Amino acid sequence: MARLTDHTPSPEPAAQPAAATASADVALRPATWRDIETLAALDAQLFEHDAWRERTWWDEFAARPRRQYVVAVGAAVPQQRVVADGTAHAPEASPDDADDREPSAPSMPRTDGAPHVSANGHPEHILGYAGLDVAGSTADVMTIAVTPEARGTGLGRRLLDHLVTAATHAGAEALLLEVRADNDPALRLYERAGFDRLTVRRRYYQPGDVDAVILRKLLKETR
Ligand SMILES: CC(C)(COP(=O)(O)OP(=O)(O)OC[C@H]1O[C@@H](n2cnc3c(N)ncnc32)[C@H](O)[C@@H]1OP(=O)(O)O)[C@@H](O)C(=O)NCCC(=O)NCCS
Questions:
Q1: Interval 33-73: pLDDT, tens
Q2: pTM of the entire predicted model
Q3: Following DSSP, what letter does each residue of 166-187 receive, concatenated?
Q4: Looking at the predicted structure, is the pLDDT value of residue 100 above 70?
Q5: Among 81, 95, 152, 214, which is most exposed with the fewest C-beta within 10 angstroms?
Q6: Structural domains of the chain sorted by starting position, each given as residue range(s) with its CATH number in brackets
Q7: Closest CA to 57 of 72, 82, 74, 35
Q8: Ligand 1 binding pocket includes 91 (Cβ within 6 Å)
Q9: Residue 111 scores a pLDDT above 60
Q10: Minimum CA distance residue for ligand 1 atom 1
Q11: Low complexity composition bias: which ranges (predicted)?
Q12: pLDDT-derived band of residue 102, with 50, 70 and 90 as boundaries?
């Protein structure tokens, strides 16, 4: 996955029965800078080896529209909104935040203790996120992740399908990604979604000597 350098919607599959959160109860929306603190905290939990810090997220958001990020939000699993320092995470997406105007400084003071609030006024929790880089004829999956509580519900596939559709609409002919060879859930997700193995970069991930598997999905046929 492109994240390893750490510079450093769409066909909706049928939702599977879910323990915690059915994918059908989850909405996808564009990520905004207001999500960055949450995304960095989640990344630290979900990516053991190469989590993106807030600075990286800011850099990624600064690269839009070439970069595109989406978050999956639902009403479940409030405990996942605890940030690394143990305090309650308190952002606040406002419904009229569509233009996503960003502050000039990368760190906005947090002024309240309220959770994200969706357009219908309900607390909103990020259950997953995904990002894309589109440059000419090729697009890359920058990241994709689902919180443990929401896994196995089809949300990862839904996020991936969203990226496939977004890349196709942006004119890309192929979508590429790289994944650790020991990441069986992700490999399964990608292969079920029609990605083919292109090559393997031996011992790419360090430490640990873990290979990187490069996968590709041709997009022309999905247009
Ligand atoms: C990889 C990840 C995004 C999958 O999310 P998810 O919401 O659980 O995936 P889905 O429920 O949509 O399942 C998609 C497919 O992957 C398969 N899959 C998901 N988790 C799996 C697991 N633990 N073992 C085997 N297969 C698994 C599912 O069976 C499904 O295939 P299907 O067509 O047979 O149903 C999630 O495990 C995750 O966030 N992992 C940590 C972050 C990460 O590694 N991201 C990828 C970096 S390259």
A1: 999 999 999 999 999 888 999 999 999 999 999 999 999 99
A2: 0.79
A3: HHHHTT-SEEEEEEETT-HHHH
A4: no
A5: 95
A6: 2-222 (3.40.630.30)
A7: 35
A8: no
A9: no
A10: 186
A11: 13-23
A12: low
> Is there an atom of ligand 1 within 6 Å of 215 CB?
no
Tokens of 72: 């999956």
**Helix (H/G/I), strand (E/B), else coil: 64:** coil
21, pLDDT greater than 50: yes
Pocket of ligand 1 contains residue 72 by CB under 6 Å? no
Alpha carbon 22 to chain centroid, angstroms: 18
Tokens of 157: 């596939």
Confidence bin at 101 (pLDDT 50/70/90): low
**For 196-204, what is the mean pLDDT?**
97
Residue tagged active-site, from 69, 129, 190, 205 = 190
pLDDT band, residue 89 (cuts 50/70/90): very low
Cα separation, 21 vs 24, in Å, equals: 8
Tell me which residue has tokens 């479940």.
76
Nearest to 24 by CA among 14, 32, 36: 14
User: How many residues does the structure list for the chain?
Assistant: 223
Strands (E), the chain: 27-30, 67-74, 116-117, 123-135, 138-146, 174-180, 196-205, 210-218
- At a CB cut-off of 8 Å and minimum separation 6, what does 83 contact? 37, 38, 41, 89
Number of other residues whose CB lies within 10 A of the CB of residue 24: 16
What number does the ligand 1 atom closest to the CA of 128 have? Answer: 39
Closest CA to 7 of 62, 66, 51, 56: 56
